[in-house]
Amino acid sequence: FFHTFFGGPTAGPADAGTRGRRTARARTTATSAGRDLEHEIELPLEEAATGATRRLSIAHGDDTRTVDVRIPAGVGDGSRVRVAGEGEPAVGSASSGDLFLHIHIRPHARFERQGRDLHTTIHVPATTAVLGGEAEVVSLDGHALRLKIPAFTQNGQVFRLKGHGTPTVGKSAERGDIYATVVIRLPRSLTPEQQALYESLARLEDSQPIVAADDKT
Q1: b/e string for 35-68 if b means 16 or more Cβ within 10 A?
Q2: Could you read off the pLDDT of 22-75 as tens digits, one per residue?
Q3: Measured distance CA(18)–CA(84) in Å, rounded
Q4: What is the pLDDT of residue 93?
Q5: Which is nearest to 56 in space by CA: 40, 43, 72, 44?
Q6: Which residues, including other chains, have CB under 8 Å from residue 77's CB and lie 6 or more apart?
Q7: Exposed, middle or buried: residue 161 (CB in 10 Å: 0-12, 13-18, 19+)?
Q8: Strands 37-43 and 99-105
Q9: pLDDT higher for 20 or 64?
Q10: pLDDT value, residue 90
Q11: What's the 3-state SS for the chain?
C-alpha cells in the first residue's frame, strides 16, 4: 500500500533479472559432474588371457572407497579399460566420472605375445629332428599339447598350434595361435656307444655327402 501511493521502491525488470541470475548460479553450483580417474594395473599374461577381478582403493579428498573391477579376457599391454560411473562422485544430480584402467602385462617366462598369438621355443633332440617324432608344448593354461615333428626338421623351423593363443576382447571363442620355433638340442656329452655311432655316421657322410632338400641339381 505504501509503495503504491507514496512512491516507494518497486521491483522493476532489472531487479527481476538479477534475481533470476542469482537463482541460476545457485542451481549451477548445486550440481557438478565428477571427474574421470586413471589407475594403472599390472597383470600376468595368464590373467590377461582369462580375465581378472581386482579390488581397488579409490581416494577422493578425505574419503577412500573400495571398488571391484572386472578386467575382460584378452586385454593386451597398453589396453585402456573403462569402468563407468566409478570415477569421482558427482555433486547433486549430475553424473559421476568414469574410472579408466591402464593395463600393463608382465613379461612371461615361456611366451611372447604378439597380438592374439603366442610365440615360444621348443628344444628338440637332433635325432628327433632328423628322424621325426613328437614334442610337447605346454599351453598358457597349463595343458600339454603334442606337436608332430616331421623328419628332417631344420633348426629355427616354426610350427603353428591353431586356437591356443589368447582370445579377442568380448569374443572369447575367437582365439589366436601358438607359434613354436624349433631349437635343435645337441648333446653335451656322449656315452662310448653314442660316440661310436656318431663316428660311424660321420664316416657315412664323408663317403656320401648329404644333398640339401632344396637343392634341385
Answers
A1: eebebebebebebbbbbbeeebebeeeeeeeeee
A2: 544 545 456 778 889 999 999 999 999 999 999 998 887 778 889 999 999 999
A3: 39
A4: 73
A5: 40
A6: 48, 103, 104, 105, 113
A7: middle
A8: parallel
A9: 64
A10: 80
A11: CHHHHCCCCCCCHHHHHHHHHHHHHHHHHHCECCCCEEEEEEECHHHHHHCEEEEEEEEECCEEEEEEEEECCCCCCCCEEEECCCCCCCECCCCCCCEEEEEEECCCCCCEEECCEEEEEEEEEHHHHHHCEEEEEECCCCCEEEEEECCCCCCCCEEEECCCCCEECCEEEEECCEEEEEEEECCCCCCHHHHHHHHHHHHHHHHCCCCCCCCCC
More confident residue, 31 or 84: 84
CA 149 to chain centre: 30
Cell of 194: 653314442
- Residue 137 binned pLDDT confidence (cut-offs 50, 70, 90): very high
| Of the candidates 138, 148, 141, the residue with the CA atom closest to the CA atom of residue 167 | 141
Pick from 33-42, 46-55, 150-159, 200-209: least confident: 200-209
Find out whether 138 and 122 touch, Cβ atoms under 8 Å.
Answer: no
Asked whether residue 12 carries a pLDDT value surpassing 50, the answer given is: yes
Burial (CB < 10 A; 0-12, 13-18, 19+), residue 199, is exposed
